Structures are given as structure tokens and as C-alpha cells.
Amino acid sequence: MKKFLLAITLMVCAFTGANAQKYALIDMEYILKNIPAYERAAEQLNQISKKWQSEVEALALDAQNMYKNYQSESVFLSDEQKAQKEEEIIAKEREAAELRRKYFGQDGELFKKRESLMAPIQDEIYNAVKDIAEQKSYSMVIDRASASDIIYASPRIDISNEVLAKLGYSN
């Protein structure tokens, strides 16, 4: 019985070994760095982000200045005037927070802009990787840049330059 199980185990191992799968790696950071459209999109996003950040900071600074003025004037104000000033300060802080959420929130304007600029580039890369994988019968293509568990991989299986060539960017 032991010999039978050993024979079955060896046959399974042999069959699995004969049906080996092919793998490839890409380095998405390297690919993106070599695509000029991505660099332009990233710069455009950076400029928009800086502009929006300065708008948010200006509102927050206004609220901070209003609060400082309130603190220095509070001894001279009536209770009604104090309440009014406090409401104005709170409204300004809410306005800054709402603007920050609108621009930088989970589904904010920056996210939407990034999606509209980057998605076409990422789709092109995905299609190029898919075409190469189908042509060369790769079972799996792994992104080296995001796969932190990879300790070592042979440079021979890195197809990043092939992807760039397929996209029309020779390196």
C-alpha cells in the first residue's frame, strides 16, 4: 500500500512538473516613468493639487485670523456679539473643511481628475501586458513595484521593456 501511494504521489508530481506555468514580471513604476503622457498628467495633477491646497489653506487662515481677532476683542463685545462672531468663525471653519473634502476627499475632485487622466494610460498598459502574456503564454504577470513579497526574480522574466516597446516607447 505504501508503494502504491508513493507511486501515485510521484505520478502527480511528474504531471504537475510537466505542466509548468510561465511567469513574467513588470515594473509598473519603471514603465510609467518612461511614458511622457504619464509624466505630463502627474505634473498637471500636482499643479491642480497645489492650487486647491492653497485655496483651502487661505480659508483656514481666515478662520484662524477671525478667531485671534475674536480673542483680542472678546472683552469688549456683548454676549450677542460674541455669539455672532463665534458662529462666523465656525462657519468659516466648516467652509474650509467642506472645501478640503470637496477637493481631496475620497470621491473628491482630485480623485476624479486623477481617474480621468490616469485611467486611459493604465488601460493601455494593461492591454499591452495582456497581449504579451497571451502571445508568450504567461500564466501570470506580477508587478514587481507593488509585490513586496518578491525577494529575488531573474531579470530574464522582466518584460517591462517589451511592454514599453508595445506601447511605442523604446528604451
How are the SSEs placed, and which strands pair?
Blueprint (H helix, E strand, L loop, with lengths): L1 H17 L4 E4 L1 H6 L2 H38 L5 H26 L4 H27 L4 E4 L16 H8 L4
Parallel strand pairs: 1-2
Helix pairs in contact: 3-4, 3-5, 5-6
Structure description:
- The longest helix has 38 residues, at 36-73.
- A two-stranded parallel ribbon has the order 1-2.
- The protein has helices at residues 2-18, 28-33, 36-73, 79-104, 109-135, 160-167, and strands spanning 23-26, 140-143.
- Helix 3 (36-73) packs antiparallel against helix 4, helix 3 (36-73) runs antiparallel to helix 5 (109-135) and helix 5 (109-135) packs across helix 6.
- The chain is 71% helix and 5% strand.
- The protein is rod-shaped.
- With 171 residues, the protein is mainly alpha-helical.
- The chain has one domain.
Number of beta strands: 2
Rg value: 29 Å
Q: Please tally the helical runs, counting DSSP H or I stretches of 4 or more residues.
A: 6
Listing every helix as H and every strand as E from the N terminus to the C terminus, the arrangement reads HEHHHHEH
Largest sheet: 2 strands, parallel
Helix content estimate: over 70%
> Structural class of the secondary structure composition?
mainly alpha
Can you give the mean pLDDT? 86
Short synopsis of the structure:
The protein has 171 residues and is mainly alpha-helical.
Tag the structure with descriptive keywords.
171 residues; two-stranded parallel sheet; mainly alpha; single chain; 6 helices
